[in-house]
Amino acid sequence: DRDNFMTAEKALEYGLIDKIFTNR
Fold this sequence. Notes:
Blueprint (H helix, E strand, L loop, with lengths): L1 H22 L1
GO molecular function, one term: peptidase activity
Organism: Bacillus paranthracis
InterPro entries: ClpP/crotonase-like_dom_sf, ClpP/TepA
């Protein structure tokens, strides 16, 4: 469960970074 949560958080963070990079 904890691993899943960490993955979800990382995925969200990566998604945000990806969006920012794409925006740039």
